[in-house]
## 1
Amino acid sequence: MALRFRADVCHFDELSAAVERMNVSWGGVHTLIASAAVQGPVGPYVDQRPRDWREVFETNVFGVLNSCRAVLPQMIQRRHGKILVISGGGAANPRPNFAPFAASKAAIARFVESLAEEVRDQNVQINSIFPGETYTSMTDEILHAGDRAGAHEIEVAENVRLTGGITADKQIQLALFLASERSNHVTGKLIHVHDDWKKLEHENGRPDAYTLRRHLK
C-alpha cells in the first residue's frame, strides 16, 4: 500500500502538513529520502542569471533542510530514524559549467555531516548517497546545452543515454543498507554507489572516511 501527498519542498509548512498526514496514516516517518533537486543553469557562470542560482539553492539546499526539519522532532522523540540525502556531481569534486549545482551539493554534504553529529546520541542516522550517473531529465538538459556543458559532460551524458548508466539495483542496495538496522553505526557519510560500502557494515572506519573531503583510506 502506498499514499501520495503533494508538497513543495521549498515550503516548510506544506512539508509539515504532509508529514502530519503521514503520521495519521502510518504512525510516523521512520525513513526519509530527500531526493528533490534541479540542475539549474548550464554553462559558464558569468553567463548565468542570479534568479536561476536562487532556484537551485531553494530546491537543492533549503528543500533538504525543510525535509529534515519536518521529520526530525518525531525521530528524536522516538530515538530512531534514518535520513538519506541524494547527493550529486560537484559534492566532492569541481564541476565547471555547473557551479551553482555543484555548490548546492557540497553544501548538503557538509550539512549532513554537521546534523549527523547533532542527532547521533538520539540514535538518528543521516547520510548522503552519491547515486552516480543515471539517465534522467538532467541528462537531456546536458545534451541540449551542447558546448555550454563542456566536452567531458557531453561525453558522459551521451554514454549514459546509450547505456542507462548506473543500474537502479546498485542504488537501491546502498539505500536499503543505510535505511536498515545494519547501518546504525554509520552516520554523517557521503557514500558513492561505487564505493566499497559493504565493508562499513562490519567496521566504523576512520572518522574522516567518506566525508566531504572524500578520505577513503
## 2
Amino acid sequence: MATLEIKDLHVSVNASDEDGGTDGTKEILKGVDLVIRDGETHAIMGPNGSGKSTLAYSIAGHPKYDVTGGTVTLDGQDVLAMSVDERARAGVFLAMQYPVEVPGVSVANFLRTAKTAMDGEAPKLRTWVKDVNAALEQLNLDATFSQRSVNEGFSGGEKKRHEIAQLELLDPKVAVLDETDSGLDIDALKVVADGVNRFRAREGKGVLLITHYTRILRYIEPDFVHVFVNGRIAEQGGPELADQLEAEGYDKYLKAGV
C-alpha cells in the first residue's frame, strides 16, 4: 500500500539558475497539497512555467530546488530527509521530460545496477536477462537495444520507452512521469501508455502524470485531474476536467491570478 502525501510544499530556486543573470531566489511552488493513494492515477495539467516539472524534481530530490516549507511523505516516511538514492530505494520513480545521455554505459548494465541498488542484491543473471528482454519486447524494442549506451543516439520515442522499461523492471511504489508524452508519435504514445497501464494495474501502485495535453489521457485514464497554475493547484476534479481544459484552455485561471 503506497501513499505519497504532499502538504503545503514551497520550493524556491536560485534565480540565476533560471535566467542566467539575476541574483537572489525565486519561489516556484507556493503551497502544494496533494495525496496520491494506492491504486490512484493523478494527472497534473497546466501552462508552461506553472511549476509542474519543479514539483516532479522536488519530489525526486534534485539539488537545484530548495524546499523552503511543507512536507512530502511516502507511507509516513519523510521523503525530504532522504538522499536521492534513498528516495529511489523507498519507491519513488521519476521519468524525466528530457532523459540524459550516459555514454559508455550500456542499457543492460544500467538496468542491472539500478535493480541491484533498489533491492540490495544483484538479480540472478539468467532470470534478469529474460526479464529485460521481455520488458523491451513489450515496448517494441529489440533485444540488441540493451547493448546500446543509455540514451546516446536514441530517438525521442526510444528514450521514453526506455524509461517505461525501467518502470517495469524496477517496480517502484509511486511513478512520477514528467511529460512522458513529449515528442512521441501516435504509435510510440500507445506503446508507452500501455506500459504505464501495466504498471498501474499492479497492486499498491500510484502514478503522478504531468502533461500539457489531453492526448495521453485518452490512453491513460486518470482518477483525478489537477490544474496547476502559478505554483499551486487551482482546481481539481475527475477526467472530465481534462476535456474542459482541452476546450477552454487555462485563460480563466491565469486571468484570475490564482
## 3
Amino acid sequence: MSRVFLASRNAKKLAEMERILRDHLPAVEVLGLDDVTPYDEPVEDQPTFEGNALLKARAGLAATGLPSLADDSGLCVDALNGMPGVLSARWAGPPKSDARNNELLLNQLADVPDDRRGAHFTCAVAFCHPTAGELVVEGRMPGHVIRETRGTGGFGYDVLFVADGDDDRTSAELSVEEKDAISHRGKALREIAPVVADVLTGL
C-alpha cells in the first residue's frame, strides 16, 4: 500500500483525491491532516493559488516525511476583477463560513446584470516528493454566478455557480461523478494523478 499525504481536513477533498489516484494506483492510501501528528500549518499568505498550494505541500512533506499534495482553489469573478480569488475561503472574514461568504458575494453582485456575472473556479495542486522534486498543475472550470443558492452537494460557492454548458444546474446539484468530470479540482487532480502514481511506484 502506497501512502501519500494531502494537506487537508476536508473529507470530500480527501475522498476525491483517493478516488482519482486509485484509477492509476489501486493500492494507495491518502492521509489527511487528522491522520498525522499535528504540526504548525503555514499561513496561506501567497498572492497566487500556486504559491499557497506549494507552501502547504512543502510544509506537509517537511512535517510528515511523506510524499505530499496540497491544493488551493477559489472563485474568480469577472465583475470583481478576479476576486475573491485566493481569499475565497475567508471572503467574509473570520471565522470561515460558506454561508456568510455566499451571502456577501450575492450582495456584491446584486446590481450586476446576468450577462456580466461570468466567473471561473481555479484549482492549483502541488506535489512535493523528497527525491522527485516539486510539480504544480492548474485546472479551471468556467461558468457564471446565479442569484440564489441551489443544491446540497459540494461546498463553498458550489451552491451559486453554474458551469458553462451544464443545463443551469449548480455545482452543488451535480452528482459526485458529474462534478469530478468537469470541476477545476477534478481536472487538476486527473492531470497530476498519473505523475504521482509513477513517482510512488518508482517508474
